[in-house]
Amino acid sequence: MARSTGAFFSDPVQPHSMYEVEVKVPADIEAVAERLAELEAEQVDTVIQTDTYYDAPHRDFAETDEAFRVRRETRKGETNAKVTYKGPLLEAESKSREEFETGVEDGDDIDAIVQHLGFEPAATVRKNRRVYEVREYDVTLDAVDDVGEFVEVERETDGDIEPVREGAYEVLQDLNLDPSDQQRTSYLGMLLSDANE
Fold this sequence. Notes:
This is Class IV adenylate cyclase. By secondary structure, the protein is of the alpha+beta class. The chain has one domain (21-196): Hypothetical Protein Pfu-838710-001 (Beta Barrel). Helix content is 24%, strand content 43%. A hairpin with a 7-residue loop joins β4 (78-89) and β5 (97-104).
């Protein structure tokens, strides 16, 4: 479909909305791994993620609470890339956001494309991530360079956020973690905050 140049940023595509419901707490990830073993949770993935976050030329993502990134994932020596847009936080009780993500063939090419469009790299977040499945939730054990260790419990939904969030709280409690320790600041925000101190 033809689109005018002026509509590039002002007339977004409206795909089916999915919401990422995520609760993140600081934790000793080895202790949590032991608890997951006790619960006979299945480890489904081990990955190194390198996320390059971009500043936009047309609005301040720090002010709008949005994020745009290119993610490179390395598994067993092979790397693939994804592009992700995350909308503003939807509620105060979790890190729930609207999210759109798609795979790309070449991370370097997409970096070049967005930089030619005026986007500028803001920061890079690198983490080692182990992923487990617990009752339809992804439980990730993250060791984040220059930030620390965290556990995330997350699930996508196209419906009501509240019951999914409450289920995430229950998973945290099963792992002997306290949902009230939740950290709503992103890894990017924590990295930039530490850099400015």
